[in-house]
Prior knowledge:
By secondary structure, this protein is an alpha+beta fold. The protein has 2 domains: 15-70 and 180-338, ApbE-like domains (T-fold, Roll); 77-178, T-fold (Orthogonal Bundle). It has helices spanning 13-20, 53-71, 79-85, 96-111, 121-126, 141-148, 179-196, 290-303, 305-315, 335-338; strands at 9-11, 29-36, 39-46, 92-94, 156-161, 164-169, 202-206, 209-213, 224-227, 236-240, 246-251, 256-259, 262-265, 268-269, 274-275, 280-287, 318-325, 328-333. The protein is globular. 44% of the residues are buried. Flavin-adenine dinucleotide binds next to helix 2, helix 7 and helix 8. Residues 7, 37-39, 67-68, 71-72, 74, 116-118, 120, 124, 129, 177-180, 182-183, 207-208, 250, 255, 266-268, 270, 294, 298, 302 line the site of flavin-adenine dinucleotide.
Amino acid sequence: MANSIAKGLLLSAALMLLAACNDANTRPQIDIEGKTMGTFYSVKVSGTLTESKQQLQQEIDALLEQANDDISTYRPDSVLSRFNQNTTAEPQPIPRGMADIILTAQRIGRDTGGAMDITVGPLVNLWGFGPDKRAVKVPSQQQIDAARQHIGLQHLKLLSDSRGEWLQKDLPEMYVDLSTLGEGYGVDQLVRLMARKGITNYLVSVGGAVSSRGVNGQNKPWRVAIQKPTDRENAVQALVDLQGYGISTAGSYRNYFEQDGQRYSHVIDPVTGRPITHKLVSVTVIAPTALEADGWDTGLMVLGTEKALKLAEEKGLAVYLISKTDDGFSAVMTPQFKAFLVQ
Ligand code: FAD
């Protein structure tokens, strides 16, 4: 189970499994796990399959491979990497799925006042959190100002015509980074695969994005746990039943580097060009799709506790925020999130 512990979320099906192994009315449960997007995926299905586990895993791997070929910045020949390498203002053809991600990202970008900004790639790479993940020291203000010249959602246009979808930039060195949305997109692809196969009892995850519906092998609703924002594994902060929704957590306590006693996380504020420094350390969002949840979690993370809570209440979002205090952590959630809480 260790590999399903992802960035702030851990699948507590194992807790349920241990708790109810001797329960009489169990159902067959099929567990499929693999690697994708530099992290792990897990597909759990309870009930009987109409095909072999191997066949289902082949379809899962093919779906996630396609997602990587479309939107990975870690593959130099992906559709997204070719768009980033192109320095003209010529519209580039993109697949439908990628257009849906960009559309969602542009809307959440506007709603968060630019806090969630998929054009932030030059800054992510400058701080060493991009594909070439080089060991970095804190960049100079001059380097940050130079990188900021190449970002801004207003310079990215999504076009659509009878031939399909196109992406256009008017900054030659614009570098779009979809890392904050990829895992949610991968989960939604798996949810659509379950629906196509008529599978109604499943729990699917890619990295820290999860969606679940129905019951597990013990005939009990799947439970997804939100981890305490510590490096200690398995510290559970809260348990939810997703009822078919998607969930994602953004955290600033896992992916960071330290220099002169200061932590620099991978969540970048596009306005300052620097990693966030406020006390909000974990944002969990539940939304109708995992893509939506994955987009909002980073945008709210950048805003900080007060602004994130105010925006979440205005938009009626299901949000759970954990902030660092002098003697530990404090948590606050919106009423919409409470509806999913089981503990
Ligand atoms: P989240 O908290 O969801 O998002 C943080 C990430 O979003 C940052 O790492 C940065 O990239 C970006 N970001 C930072 N600030 C902002 C902002 N203000 N607005 C918008 N975005 C921001 N990693 C590997 O190591 N190897 C791989 O082969 C690999 N392949 C990948 C393939 C795909 C298709 C995708 C989508 C990602 C891949 N990754 C890979 C990256 C990895 O999976 C994670 O996406 C990345 O580490 C961020 O993980 P997270 O979910 O914790 O970040």
